[in-house]
Structure prediction request, 415 residues.
Amino acid sequence: MLLIFVGCYGLAISRKVKIAYVGIASAAVLLLILLPTKVLTPEQALNAIRWDVLGIYWGFMMVSILFSESGVPKHLARHVLQNTKNEGMALLALCAITAFLSSFLENVGVVLIMAPIAMEVARRTKSPLLLYLISIAISSNMVTTVSMIADPPAIILASEAGMSFLDFYWFQGRPGIGAISAIAAIIGLAALYLCHFRKMKTKINIEKEKIETNYLPTVVFICGVVALALNSYLRVGPGVIGLIVGVISVLLGFKNLSKMIKEFDWNSFFFIIGIFIVIGAIDEVGILGDLAHGIGGLGFNNAAITLMILVWLSVALSSFIDNVPYSVLMIPVAKNAAVALGSAGLAYPLMYGTVIGTGVGGNITPVGATANVFAVGLLEKRGYRVKPKDYLKIGLAPTIAAVLAAHLLLQLFWI
Prediction:
């Protein structure tokens, strides 16, 4: 069983096989092995799947696809650029808009929305495109835990911790992970500006352009976010809200349904289904508990040291491991590590640190996050050869600054 688990994660990390196939196949093999022992029945496997996660993921990604084609993001970006003084401030504005949109929308979609605008500004200022596109990718990853719907790990965390949309900002009388992540992202963007944009003084002139806009996707998105924030009063599950948002988005974009279906990340969607079952199975036989106790032992039974280990281990591993499988594995481990330390209340800062580390840590290398891969792909199509050291040179300082800020805030408010 441990061999299947290790093989599953090994293949997922290698990306030599589609992770959807890896997740579903691993779950099926474990079911076949454990079914005769009744350790894992089909009913238990279905219960192990976090249906709310899937509902939110599908629904809000559908509205994200629709929103990206609505013209609103492009209109917003151009309006901001027309009011910037120089190239450095324009690039900071592009990164800030990217970060804001990525707090609620799928990262890759936001990068693809912002890339053409960045290319136009780079062309007008005759600046290297590499800094523009890598900075946008970094900014999209900086905010993966600012909201409950920012990225799959954030959705998984909310499900595992039983958190509502508003709990991300104020929880148990303290700043939540969303508030801490927002402050960390601002510090990360400031580091990006000070290290790379500050000396870019070329003036820019963005001509006015009439952009056709459709505000219906924006209305659906805002209503969906409000519904998530009020779901405890509406008495409607977050997964149901996600499904409603998705169905409305499909109806609004029905003419482009084939494109929406094609652009949806089915690979990650089915991998998440399979990996939930795999994690449920290894939890039943005690492997997760053993791993959690091992990490607790590394922290010498000290909460502050355990938090430090989880945060920076997540940063290091996420520089080359996809954040979805890592989060699905490590969120329960962090939760169990708190129990091993003798305080269930420590689960929240340990889970927060793990997810922040894996979200922002992906900025260190070109393969650390899907948004990075897309940005590098766009550069390579235009003749740029992106070396790992070039990416590291841009991404390291803002990554360290953002994660360090989040780590210190977690230590201050939660440990």
User: Anything to note?
Assistant: The two ends are 35 Å apart (CA to CA). The CA atoms of residues 144 and 151 lie 5 Å apart. Residues 2-414 form one domain. DSSP finds 21 helices and two strands in the chain.
